[in-house]
Amino acid sequence: MTDLTIELREVSHAYRTAAGKLPVLDNLSIKVPKNSFCAVVGPSGCGKSTLTRLVSGLMIPDEGQVWLSNHQVTSPRPTVGMAFQNPVLLEWRTILQNVLLPMEIVKTKMTKDEQMARARHLLDLVGLTGFEDKRPSELSGGMRQRASLCRSLIHRPEVLILDEPFGALDAFTREDLWCTMHDLRAEEPFTCLLITHDLRESVFLADQVIVLSGRPAHAQHILNVDIPAPRTLDDLYTPKAVEMLATLRHEIQVAQGRSVAEPAAKPAAHARGPIPGAMG
Amino acid sequence: MSGTLRKVGVPILFIAIVLALWEWAVWVNDLPDYRMASPSDLVPKFWQFRELFLIYSWQTLWRTAAGLGLAVVVGTAIGMVMGFSRVAREGLYPLLVGFNAIPKATVVPIVALIFVGRHDFNTILIAFMISFFPIAVSVSIGLSTLEPEYRDILRSLGASNLTIFWKIALPKTLPEFFGALKVAVTLAFIGTNLMEIVSPHGRGLGALFDSGRISADYPLMFAVLLMLAILGIALFYVVVFLERIFAGWAERAPG
Ligand SMILES: Nc1ncnc2c1ncn2[C@@H]1O[C@H](COP(=O)(O)OP(=O)(O)OP(=O)(O)O)[C@@H](O)[C@H]1O
Ligand SMILES: [Mg+2]
Question: Cα B101 vs. chain centroid, distance in angstroms?
């Protein structure tokens, strides 16, 4: 019990729309141990962003409970850091001021200088050095996404919730940032819930990958990723990883409601897997 | 350097062209003064009445500014109530629109009757009444259309509604607010002069206009109109200046 940081107990939730109730989550249970990394994949529109809003306390589930570090979530908590799928930055602030925004809300022991140094360090990690004093309108979509990632990390959150944080990035920057995430976790442990649509990303980053079913979503499959740390991109091309990717791909197809045969045999899995050595 | 030169030079050039066209049109059509005074007729008038112009301009200006200030305070307050509460929005909109649709020229005698003799107050009141509507509407729209994503950035950290208002809603609404304020500036001048002309009490440029009318001094009337335009431009650019400072971020580089 005590070593769980994020726990969802039989959570169900529906949106009330003009057309009636739209059930989105159905009896979803998730357990994320302290300082571990959980990735969630699932078909578009199945309720992944809804899940992040429930975990962060922005919404309260209709049924079931959400627990964060042994507190039942009834409202947002400052120990959470969140990067939204739509990375809005405040246009009237510079990038540096945007990253520092949470420090104006959250109580902290950091001095102003330490905050500033940390913000610059984070911006450096995601490759935004030199853009501290630019306005968000002067940045590309992917750069804004990276700045929003820094903002979610600035106050050293215990729980980090990332909703498709690397969606707008090119493959190379994305892989760089995967490694940055590993470095960060080694530096300062935190519990992470990552929403993604990139299966390789989920396997490379996570300790467990949860496949959500189609709407209303429940945990259709949980895959434990037992690749030891420190991981390198080459670990994605081991037979074990390729098999995991094949399993996930199969589960996603089931979640999408496509009729599929049992997991394809090994050679076929290879054929549909990433081309070995193409990247990384 | 060439940027500031262009910013100052181009408007001045355009004003000069318009004045020249005006002068030319009056001269070509050989219009008498009582039909249309020409700019060259106005200069001596400005000089002749220079003291009155100074005093009356100041009276018109400060009362307009006061009415506008009141409109900003009350308009923002109404806008905030309508922006945050749906019930208030639905309830207040028809009232506001109805009130705004009443021609203010008809309100002037009523106000003058209710508050007999309180000229400054009456004038400020009319300037306020005519100019608060765009401010209220823009603030309410700015607040009610604030994307939930913006709110969520701070809400997910446990920030209070007041903090969210100060750090997100208010700055985000400023560009709309200043847009409305630019409209309100010119409206407030109309309000002040309505009071000064329709219910004359010997103060402000409106009174000078009126005395020009009584003594059939047409160039003086035109000179007053020109003075009003100048004051309007001046106050407008004060708002533009404030906008630069507080909402300059909303201005995108051209291209
Ligand atoms: N505020 C809302 N009101 C009503 N319905 C909503 C609302 N937000 C989301 N939905 C619906 O709930 C479902 C799940 O939405 P959600 O954003 O959680 O999906 P998602 O899994 O994050 O999708 P994607 O992968 O495309 O981001 C969708 O069908 C969406 O239409
Ligand atoms: Mg989503």
Answer: 18
Closest CB to A92 among B154, B157, B171: B171
Q: pLDDT tens digits for A175-206?
A: 989 999 998 898 889 999 999 999 999 999 99
Is the pLDDT score of A278 beyond 70?
A: no
CA distance to A231, B24, B80, B211, per residue, from B230 (Å): 71, 21, 33, 20
Q: What is the tens place of the pLDDT at every residue in B157-169?
A: 989 888 998 899 8
Question: Domain residues for A272?
Answer: 1-77+158-280
- The two structure tokens encoding residue B155: 């809400």
Q: pLDDT band at residue B36, thresholds of 50, 70 and 90? A: confident
> What is the whole-number distance in angstroms between the Cα of residue A223 and the centre of ligand 1?
24
Neighbours of ion ligand 2 (CB under 5 A): A 48-49, 85
Torsion angle, alpha carbons of B240, B243, B248, B254, to 10 = -30
**Beta carbons of B173 and B139 less than 8 angstroms apart:** yes
User: How high is the ipTM of this complex?
Assistant: 0.80
* Among candidate residues A107, A126, A157, the one where a domain is terminated: A157
Which residue has the CA at smallest separation from atom 16 of ligand 1? Answer: A47
Nearest CA to ligand 1 atom 28: A45
Q: For chain A, what percentages of helix, strand and coil (3-state, to nearest 5) are there?
A: 35, 25, 40
Residues A146 and A171 in one domain: no
CA-nearest residue to B249 within chain A is A92
Interface residue ranges in chain A relative to chain B, Cβ cutoff 8 Å:
53, 56-58, 75-78, 80, 82, 84, 86, 88, 90-93, 101-102, 104-106, 135, 137, 151, 155
pTM, two decimals, is: 0.79
In our burial notation (b when 16+ CB lie closer than 10 A, e otherwise), range A34-70 reads eebbbbbbbbeebbbbbbbbbbbbbbebbebebbbbe
pLDDT in tens, B78-124: 999 998 888 998 999 999 999 989 988 888 888 888 887 788 899 99
Report the SS3 class of residue B31: coil
Q: Is residue A83 part of a domain?
A: no
Tell me the chain B residues in contact with residue A58 when contact means C-beta distances shorter than 8 Å: 152, 155-156
- Give the ligand 1 atom nearest the CA of A197: 25
- Contact B154/A88, CB-based, under 8 Å? no
**B16 shares its domain with B132:** no
Domain coverage including residue B84: 42-249
Closest protein CA for atom 24 of ligand 1: A44
Decide which of A138, A157, A176 is a domain's last residue.
Answer: A157
Rounded to 5 degrees, φ, ψ at B125 are -60, -45
Q: Which residue has the tokens 């009003």?
A: B228
